[in-house]
Amino acid sequence: xxxxxxxxxxxxxxxxxxxxxxxxxxxxxxxxxxxxxxxxxxxxxxxxxxxxxxxxxxxxxxxxxxxxxxxxxxx
Length: 75
Known about the structure:
Layout: H1 3-18, H2 29-54, H3 68-72
């Protein structure tokens, strides 16, 4: 899920939970809103966690290698 979908799910869940007062037989609108809030929050946390892992940069391969033998044994 993308960040926009997660935030959209959270917004829709908040609207269903806090602003909508409809009684539909067989469907609890408040519970649907809470479930959408929870799923959106979990998705957003997972997306941010994956995004942080992608941004870690390995050291550059062009770094000089110092050999111990050449450093201590001058000829």
